[in-house]
Amino acid sequence: MAFISRISGYYNNQDDDSIRLMNKTYTERTAKYIQLVSNLKKNFAEDFVELPQVVFCGNQSAGKTSLLEAIANVQLPRRDGTCTRCVMEIRMQETSKTSGWECSISLRVEYDENNNPLPDARRKNLGFGEAIHDPSDVHLMAYRAQKALLNPSTKHDLYLDHEPLDESKEEEDEIKFTMNTVCLSIKGPNVPNLSLVDLPGIVEHIRNVDPEVSRQLVTTIKTLARNYVKNQNSIIVATIPCKEEDENQSIHNIINEVDRHKKRTVFVLTKPDRIEPETHGKWIPKLQNSSGPDYFVVMNPNQEKLNKGVTFTQAREEEKQWFENTEPWCSSTFKDKLGVKRLRTRLENLLIEKIRESIPEVTNKISNRLKKENNILKNLPPPPLNAHSAISNVTNKCKESIRHKLENTETELNDKNDNLWEKMRGQLNEYKTTIKNGRPLFVLKSNNHALLVDVLENISTQNCDKKYDSIVVTTKAIVNKHSNRRSLGSEEFFKETTNIKDIIDKNRAHELPSRVPYKVPNDIIKKYQRHWKEHSTQCLEKIFDIFWKEIEQIIRNSAKQYKKLCLFLEGRAKKRLESCKERCEKLIELFSDLELKKPYTEDDQITRNKSVYQSQLINLVPNDTEAATVVADVKSYYELSLRRYTDYVCMTIIYKFVFEFSEDWQNSMISDIFVDDTENANGHLKPNELIEEDPAITDDRDRCEKDINRLKKIKKELEDFKFSML
Prior knowledge:
24 helices
């Protein structure tokens, strides 16, 4: 902005009134900058971005109120203690010479009575009375506005006619301090274009209150000051009495935290008439240092002159005369740093430049935040239209999600172990391995050799020239225990096995000689089948857990908008899934009973296999043909039985449990919900009750929509401003 750089150099030798007369464009354009910030604040833009402003801060009794009055040309509340108890914002905007002077007061309520932030729905800007056209009336109305903020349970408009009383007669306010703001919007000819924030004066204790309350209030006031000045777009005005050391001021410590190099801080020295003679030395170098922080000196009327009714015009003239006739000021080389008018012009230029510089960043942040909020809203479920369509949408979504899971056609693939079929297949493989590990194993025994015969593998013919004396039956666990060949033929191993010949002898009854009792192979087969049913039901339970976790997650994702519907669907789905499991358990029980009653098959292949096995075994154990026959019987049938049983169990779990539930889902869920439009004797909830939206989602959507509306308004303000400056 070239016009700013052209004008800013004039303030050294010209007062602000003459600048305005010389450059009308400057006045009009700077007024638009202040109006922009004012409009953004009304839309609570500071929730999203840091807005430029001039923040006045300092210790109490540092002359801050007098300085603000001098800049704004209005009287502010001075009653003891009052002005330390809320924030005051003064927005000033110059208008044409033909316009009259006016001041509008409003209350910006953003905090509750405990100074906790209010939710968006409860935040508000409240107009306070009608526009004021006499500057002398501002003092009283600003006082009344503060009283309204300090008594939040009372309607604010009841304080419009409140008359101040002596402090001893005034009713005690509901709260001692509020972080809410009294806003003064001043417009008129020759009004500086400024946006000022008057913070409560920093104190170390507060009179006439409980010590603990005093400590809390002091902490709150310091926190408030810190929050305002840490805004990187804030211009900090620190008021310091000349008779005190600036490093000893509490505000100095706060400024050091947020603006260590004092790039955006202006120090204003007040009450120069109270400096002891010839003790100006500590301030002169700072005022002369053009490369260091900005320092100004102002001279405002004391209380005696205020009581006599000195006017602002008189005060500025007296200030001018005082600096022109008092050493060391009158002979100084930094006259551009003396007086309220020059300070006011400096602050105006700094603020306008700060606003101008911040607009691109503010615009960018608002646009990005608007995109972000739109994306958040897009990902939130839409509000329910009616019960039937909402519930149907959820159940359809569940059905489709289950279908995609079972068909393994999910659109999103990732490295996580969340593939349903991978989990279930892993469990089925584990089940089949467990069943196989329980099979009988036979060992052909001789004095020097041992040969393992697995019922599920072909008999080894590598050592067919070797002969064995007997055959024992054992388990995989015992074989694994004696895993090496030498150990497998050891006496320790055979102590844990059972000789087939011994089993035959114990079970022999009235059979013909050389006939193996039918009971022997049957008992061996049944003995190693007895845990099949237990393992099968355990497998079903594990598949149930895997499948239910998937169903539960699908329901929660699909119905997350409606807590009651989600709980209802979870309950009904689990009940249906348990019913499917019970039917599956009955089928497993049937298969187990059929397999465990007596060996049976119509498969002729078993006869052919038995002949081959029997021939091989008799060749290996020629002296125990009965045992060889038993092993051939067991091996040929057990292999068939195991494969047949595990195949049917796995098929039953998949089709009669998993897929049957999936096919049953849609109709059963809809019928469960829409039994009747009223609650019936079975405790069904009304459909309308089921789609009561989760309050958290409703709140998120409401917040998002409100933020989007505010952001759109803010964006439009920025666009309109840009257009107006063309």
